Amino acid sequence: MNDHPDSNLPPGSAPSIATQGDDSLESAPVSAPEKLAGRRNLLQLIQLRWLAVAGQLATILTTELVLDVRLPIVEMLSVLAALTVFNLASRLRVSLARHAISNAELFAALLVDVAVLSAQLYFSGGIANPFIFLYLLQIAVGAMLLRTGYIWAMVLITCLCFMGLTVWNRPLHLEELSGPGLSVHYFGGLLICFALNAALLVIFIHRIGRNLRLRDSRLADLRQRAAEEEHIVRMGLLASGAAHELGTPLATLSVILGDWSRMGPFAADPELREEIDEMQFQLARCKTIVTGILMSAGESRGEAPGQTMLHAFLGDVVSRWRETRPGHVLHYLLGETPDRAIISDTALRQMLGNVLDNAQEAAPQQPLTLRVSCEGDVLVLRVIDQGPGFAPEILENFGKPYHSTKGRPGSGLGLFLSVNVARTLGGKIEARNLEGAGAEVRITLPLSALSLREEGGEAGVSKSGMKQ
């Protein structure tokens, strides 16, 4: 079936990237990935803050109960409770967010973390507390998330907090536990602080870096999709112009064939008469294709989209395909697929017809199989042939324009358009080689997308539904 080409989180992060809608392709490459990245980054801050809550609680209780160092525990636990409430509010903010998480909002969230850390250090010795170096973690996180102005503002604020703690603090007397000089508890605190900084920086920077890579990948995908949409529009304009130009010669040929069919030499010869009938049939098919192109281009948009039943729609597509391709066998297996009302759209017909045509061209003398099933709320159409299968390079570029082994101009557009129709409906088209011989093209479409839609949605499907 190697001729078919004519025919996408880090742990503990936000959900994976959702498919961007088709109604704002111009703004999507800028706004959507930034919104997703901001949301993920705020979720990373929330997770990091939960670690801070747990670490501060463990440190306070260990210092108070195990090391027997007197702390203003009520005040420190009150600050910790306030941080917990703020983090819960931040999580709710992410759940209810309908707009992008701005850099200013991330900066404000980091300022809250700096304020809480400063308060805890104030109650536990100021700069004499070995955990003073956690300010460096706040700066590093800000450097990863914020723009340049906010980063330097964060550096300035943490420096001011550091200097303020040299003057205003409640001192701890750790030396009383182990004599003069730096106590063993101080050294232990330094070690724990260093380990926390190192571990959290590695984890956080790794996750943020992955978020940024996902954002860049999403931007690249959206730019590629925008280019494909522009390519489809250009092809639509060319197809519409060609359809107009073909109208006159097709009408002329129809008149000539009608005259021939009434001429004595042709009417008296059964073989010639049969050939003329076949030519008239193929000419009528060409007119139907031209009409379909013009309708897809929007020049016959006066009629509302028709409603039909799923079984009737698929049966009609199969019947028309068999009628226009005599001599080719197509096994149609409907199975226990539930029947439901759907829209009868030209783009859907052309999409399935393109896939069947490519399968037939891959194995001209072998029967094809169209197997229909439902997986939950998803309609699954499997087109199976008994050809040689896909070449590896064709599978790798499946659905991309001009990737074909047919070696003729325009090859590779049929499946390119079909893939875009399926994608517009929220579905996809995949291909694989079968064991032994043959190949399978699998079309998955959400049943909800096949129901009657508003004019804007229907037009969006038809735009990509031009037949090759």
From TrEMBL:
Q: What top-level branch of life does the organism fall under?
A: Bacteria
Transmembrane segments annotated in the record for this chain: 151-169, 184-205
Q: Which residues form the signal peptide?
A: none
Q: Which residues form the Histidine kinase domain?
A: 241-449
Task: Report residue spans for region: Disordered.
Answer: 1-30
Q: What class of enzyme is it?
A: transferase
* Keywords attached to this entry: ATP-binding, Kinase, Membrane, Nucleotide-binding, Transferase, Transmembrane, Transmembrane helix
EC number(s) for this protein? 2.7.13.3
Q: Which reaction does it catalyse?
A: ATP + protein L-histidine = ADP + protein N-phospho-L-histidine
Which terms in the Gene Ontology molecular function aspect does this entry carry? ATP binding
Q: Which InterPro entries match?
A: 2C_sensor_his_kinase, HATPase_C_sf, HATPase_dom, His_kinase_dom, HisK_dim/P_sf, Sig_transdc_His_kin-like_C
Protein name, entry field: histidine kinase
Species in which this protein is naturally found: Roseateles koreensis
